[in-house]
Write a sequence for this structure.
């Protein structure tokens, strides 16, 4: 991977901060396992609905983009939204 190429963490952070009202309260934690990387997301209570979306559609879209980007890097990643 090139040095100027954004990481999966940066990709998620940019997308999520664009969705929420209080971007400074977005906390994204990356936990690297042997085969899978888990991204734990914590947002302000009022922004939780914006990140999840109606019937979970926004969360599903974020996970789809993460999976596509991970596959390109030959990695496996999961997004967990923590309430």
């Amino acid at each position: 991977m090139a040095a100027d190429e954004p990481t999966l963490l940066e990709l998620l952070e940019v997308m999520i901060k664009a969705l929420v009202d209080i971007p400074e309260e977005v906390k994204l934690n990356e936990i690297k396992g042997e085969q899978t990387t888990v991204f734990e997301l914590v947002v302000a209570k009022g922004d939780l609905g914006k990140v999840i979306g109606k019937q979970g559609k926004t969360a599903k879209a974020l996970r789809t983009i993460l999976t596509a980007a991970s596959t390109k890097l030959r990695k496996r990643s999961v997004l967990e939204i923590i309430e």
The chain has one domain: 8-82. The longest strand covers residues 36-42. The radius of gyration is 13 Å.
